[in-house]
Design brief:
The protein is 42% helix and 16% strand. It is built from eight helices and seven strands, in the order αβααββαααββααββ. A four-stranded antiparallel β-sheet has the order 4-5-7-6, covered by helices on one side. A three-stranded antiparallel β-sheet has the order 1-3-2. A hairpin with a 5-residue loop joins strand 4 and strand 5 (171-175).
Length: 253
């Protein structure tokens, strides 16, 4: 049966660009940088060619998500062109306030209940279902379309996701950015279980046979890896953390 395209619902996110997670990663870098960044600096941070970085940066400027300016220089030489994210960065009071609020609430939950992981997982499930457009009755969506929709949603939520497969065909979900990385590092059983539940709630809403069954947070800076496995929904009540990451190749530029 053909896939039925549902109208999108607004959930406060930015939506996905044509280039997916790579551009989301660049936006996050611009937001978090205390100073405007040059093309070369962005290319080095993301691990891409300077021409690719310039293309993404100019696309962000065109879409209104970044600004471009030429630095004033007292010394001779060609001035640098630098870019700034149009959303508040970490030095902005509003952004700092949200991050501080997240850290305070997370610390309070962790202190009140050291074993809050399964409960937070259920909370994440509820939000994952809520943020996912329902599939109409009797409409079947294949697993590739489901994972595409999941990647779209996670990209809109600033996770810079990428779907990879092992040589055996095992799918892995690679997240190149965590919007609350510092808080997640301090309280993974709270933040990571919340995110894992959100992913599985979304998969459940789309009637996927797959669930996130393992999650390895921060296997390298800005890189979390989760395993997607075909299991019954009732089997997963929380997701094991700090497990060895599955073998996945480096993402293509």
């Amino acid at each position: 049966m053909p896939t039925h395209q549902q109208p999108s619902i607004y959930d406060g996110t930015t939506g996905r660009s044509d280039s997916g997670g790579r551009r989301t990663h660049i936006i996050q870098l611009l937001r978090d940088s205390r100073e405007p960044m040059s093309v070369a600096e962005v290319a080095e941070q993301v691990g891409i060619h300077v021409n690719t970085a310039r293309f993404h940066l100019e696309s962000l400027v065109y879409s209104g998500m970044a600004t471009r300016e030429t630095e004033a220089r007292a010394a001779p030489g060609r001035p640098r062109v630098v870019y700034t994210g149009t959303l508040p960065n970490q030095t902005h009071e509003r952004a700092q306030g949200f991050r501080l609020l997240a850290e305070m609430l997370t610390a309070a939950v962790a202190e009140a209940d050291p074993d809050a992981g399964p409960w937070l997982y259920q909370v994440g499930q509820e939000w994952g279902r809520y943020l996912t457009t329902k599939v109409p009755p009797y409409v079947t969506i294949d697993e590739s379309e489901i994972t595409n929709r999941l990647v779209d949603k996670l990209d809109a939520l600033w996770f810079a996701p990428e779907l990879e497969h092992s040589d055996e065909g095992q799918p892995s979900l690679v997240l190149h950015n965590c919007p609350f990385a510092q808080t997640a590092n301090a309280y993974p059983d709270v933040v990571c279980q919340l995110h894992a539940g959100m992913i599985n709630g979304s998969l459940e809403e789309m009637r996927s046979a797959y669930r996130l069954t393992h999650l390895a947070p921060q296997v390298s800076p800005h890189r979390c890896v989760g395993v997607l496995s075909p299991v019954p929904a009732e089997v997963v009540t929380s997701v094991p953390l700090h497990t060895p990451a599955p073998h996945v190749g480096e993402p293509d530029v």
